[in-house]
Amino acid sequence: MEITKLTALQTAAAIRQKTLTAPEALEASLEAIGATGEAVNAYITVCAGQARERAQQVQAKIEAGVLTSPLAGVPVAVKDNICTKGVRTTCASKILGDFTPFYNATVIERLEAAGAVIIGKCNMDEFAMGSTSETSYYGPTKNPWDLSRVPGGSSGGAAAAVAALQAPIALGSDTGGSIRQPASYCGVTGFKPTYGTVSRYGLIAYASSLDQIGPIARDADDCAAMMDVIRGKDDRDGTSLTVDQGSLLDAVRATESLKGMRVALPAQCFEREGLDGRVADAVRTTAGIMEELGAQVQTVDLDFLDYVIPAYYIIAAAEASSNLSRFDGVKYGMRAEEYGDLTDLYKKTRSEGFGDEVKKRILLGTFVLSSGYYDAYYRKALQVKAIIKERFDRLFERFDLILTPTAPATAPILGESLADPLKMYLSDIFTVSVNIAGLPGISIPCGFDGAGMPIGAQMIGQRLQEATVLGAAHAVQRLTDYHTRTPEVKA
Amino acid sequence: MNWEIVMGLEVHVELATKTKIFCSCTTQFGGAPNTHCCPVCTGMPGTLPVLNRKVLEYAVKAGVALGCEITRYNKFDRKNYFYPDLPKAYQISQLYLPFARDGAVEIACAPGLTKTIRIHEIHMEEDAGKLVHSAYGEASFPDYNRCGVPLIEIVSEPDFRSAQEVLAYLAKLKSTFEYLGISDVKMEEGSMRADVNLSVRPAGSQALGTRTEMKNINSFKSIERAIAYESARQIEVIESGGSVIQETRRWDENKGKTFSMRSKEDAQDYRYFPEPDIPPIEISDEMLEKIRACQPEFADQKAARYVEEYGLSEADAKIIVASVRMASLFEDTVALCGNPKEVRYWLLGEVLYFINDRGMTLSDFRLDAQSFAAFVKIAASERINRRGAKKLFEAMIFADHPLDLEAYIRENDLEQVDDAQLIREAVRAVIAENPKTVEQYKNGVTKVAGFLVGQTIKRLSGKAKPETVNRIIAQELAKL
After folding, report:
1. Is A178 designated active site?
2. Residues B405 and B448 in one domain
3. Within an 8 Å CB–CB cutoff, is residue B278 touching chain A?
4. Cα separation of A304 and B79, whole Å?
5. Which domain holds residue A54?
6. Residue in A closest to B88 by C-alpha
7. Does residue B337 share a domain with residue B253?
């Protein structure tokens, strides 16, 4: 048995069947980190000590029959913007380099209650701002399929950890595509839930109205199992929703055919400048598979695509400029060594503590909220948001699912994107509208390009239709094997 | 030239909910620094605010009481600025949709003269913490206990023309919120704070002058002083050929002056935008109806009823209703003993004397409606005279334990003497002992009879029933 190649559900099943123990599963992941960790740089912090202790306790509880969750005993990697009690949480920023929360995010509490073992904290773009994981203060994460390429972002570390077999499953966060796009670049499955289905308590906010925590895993079933653990109303998050708490995993596993499912293929997502032909072909092939499974696929018009990137960057930057103001050197995190008065303390701390991309977005956000500009930018962006929501609602009157490429191209070479930020921003074109409308979306591997880099297909569902999205992904993955392929990491 | 002062008020009132507006920390005043806080109210990364529904209820109560239109679809906004007492670097407030608008408050600005002050809006927001400045060196220490204490800010229209009107308005707000039970309204503890926007203009002019905003005024007395100072300052500036600068000025209590804090040019851009962490809150018909139906009887209505129902004078009624506790003690006691005049007598005579004379408060006395009513029944009966009653009353209100009134009367022999024979003997003895006084009486100085009454009562250890003594003295003197 190659332990690290098991999915999360297979790992837990093996532990239940006593062919594997939780500590053994953990050690296998830790070994993989030992072997390829430095090359990939997927983790900022590996908490081996705490994890080993947890794995022992979890094993005892599983043996005692106290822990029966489908994920009990599974090692889980966590993006470093999700607060973990007693384990430092940096957001890949210098400014939070020494920040150790004394509270857990709700998702961590729920995972631990289900017997998961947190193995470490994953690298990311600083404060989740970026699409390549290169803006991390702790160095860029590399794509396990080709170490000269980026893993995508901002949850690049989490996606790379799963792809490099350094963890069977991970938690990421998605503000404009930050789960789906790196999942696509790394050949793994990443699910962004409906806004409000997973509590954001303990997720260090980038853009509060768009952020959502979700799983990155080997397949849709693992994502469903993780969702069963983490989703649901949380009294500590006013935006969290009461959702149907039946087992998503059962619903997803029961999806064998897509008979009667109406799938929309937006024409604008398949014919545009900068779109890689092989990406379009691979996603069309996926559409074909869905037809084989009984779905009716129809090309539709999605005319608002050109407006989503500007609207997204205005809303996200505005919220970020406010959310990141609390990092001022007064209460926690880094404080500049030398400063004069209070204003100087703020200036120096924030100048030294934040990286360029973060500063750029704070400036942009501050500008669009300034008096005299608010109406021209922020209010306008909110109007665009309302229109996008309405267009999706209309589309979902006729369709159950929308199928698009996750990203226009496969993973770029390290350094290319930061040199051309506008191009990088445009790589989010297919993913951001999903956040703007608060919809569930998944990226599944659907092929490889000529360079052997993975291609991802995105499926988008109507609000709260997680079962439809995950079910369709499950059905497609039953007929394909892209998600089972793993890279050989050249350490 | 005659000048007119024009003022508008921004009044912050802390709501007395048990817990803070966005977390479950206590709102209690004081406490060791940073002991009434949690990850949420100290703005730790990743934490989120969740609205305390009680705050909404209290706020709407205030809005309804001040005659406002209540906004049914409520949202919060973020007000962004950096300061160490504001841990998130933004204050959650309401800019675009304040929960209440267009209200009005009637104030008594002179005896028999009322005036309407219009309320522009009321919004909800969270309080900030405090900076404690070190007595040594230059260090400052943030105390986050007050962070997240719920506030409402009541913004008036510029309807005030004198300090008296401002004070009457503040007293009215204070009383209204006390009767609603939604705030402690203590200026000295900062649970009510007022910023005064003030400008002056030539009397008769309709145009508004340039205004300044005064902050940091911590008592009713300072408000009066600050208004007097600032209006005089502005008049002097204008009369000496200058012009008033629009700015925020800080009131310095010790120096009795206002000082410039920042001018309009330095005004911060707060970059308000809708708070994404708190979903919009709808106020239902049901909630609003319930609040409307549960509005208490306020001071003015109460006072009018006391005059009407209990025959109190307007002045007495006003004194009683000025304090919620005193009014409820008064009403409860009257309900139990049915003797409003007698209750008024003891409350306004004795209790108020101690309150005014010794700076005590109502809670310093052992005084509940039950025992007060029992006392009033005794005091109003023939069993005990005023002097005995006073002794009994003081014993009761200053007792360590609830006083057994009957036992006290027995032990201190307070039972009134109404034995005609006994009193007649005493009267005769007093007449015999005071020939000079008797002589005066005979010569027509009849008021000296009072002296003889006093002497008789004294002779009977203060227990004699004064009416009986009067009657017998009259009889005995007539015989002479």
Report:
1. yes
2. no
3. yes
4. 32
5. 3-255
6. A326
7. no
